């Protein structure tokens, strides 16, 4: 046989005519050379994974089919769900038993892949995370922790939340207390103009809240000079004389308009005059 007709292993040069061989990158190898040169080493038994064996791989690691087993119970993991922990492969049952969290209600394992609830380091099966009051699964709905229990929002409002004395509905966030009674911020209004009083200065009369403007218009004394209300609630200074009141800036001579604050003055019927204008009269 001529050299051109030879068909040899690329590595050991043995003839491959009539023998099983493997091609790799357009180059032929006998099975022995191929296994020695290229076969992956099994993670289970440390032997090469031969050409006649299935090569099962996971994250660049390889196993014989018969070596692909749970590291704890030795059950085959071929075509089964498994989990990895510290380079070990475990069946879902062993992984769950050793590493999965336990349900805080039923104390059973929360299996990997199952729907669960987690809160502050505790875990529950979704069907075990119940409202403490109505005993219905909370699921993905909002909940409120209270003491050692968890409540869906409607149950929490019924059992614990303050009721606004205006609209009688639960106060879940914020709120205002006035005369030892709870109010929603949006319900705490001036009895006169219905403007919100939360965060504003206000006063009261006969137990009703008023904004300063309404209180002044309704109850404050009026300035003789400008006829506008005088209220100390707004920090205004005023002058009082014979049951009449003036804003400090309005207490001026009726004739020459000079300020009479801190000065002597004269009266002429209902008029207030400075001493100079009073003498001219």
Automatic annotation (TrEMBL):
Keyword 4Fe-4S: no
Gene3D superfamilies reported for this sequence: Cysteine Rich Protein
SUPFAM superfamilies listed in its UniProt record: Glucocorticoid receptor-like (DNA-binding domain)
UniProt KW keywords: LIM domain, Metal-binding, Nucleus, Repeat, Zinc, Zinc-finger
Residue stretches making up the LIM zinc-binding domain: 40-100, 101-162, 221-281
Compartment(s) where it occurs, according to its Swiss-Prot or TrEMBL record: Nucleus
Entry keyword annotation includes Nucleus: yes
Domain of life: Eukaryota
Gene Ontology cellular component list: nucleus; Z disc
One Pfam family here: LIM_FHL2-3_N
GO terms, molecular function: transcription coregulator activity; zinc ion binding
Protein name: Four and a half LIM domains protein 2-like protein
Taxonomic source organism: Lates japonicus (Japanese lates)
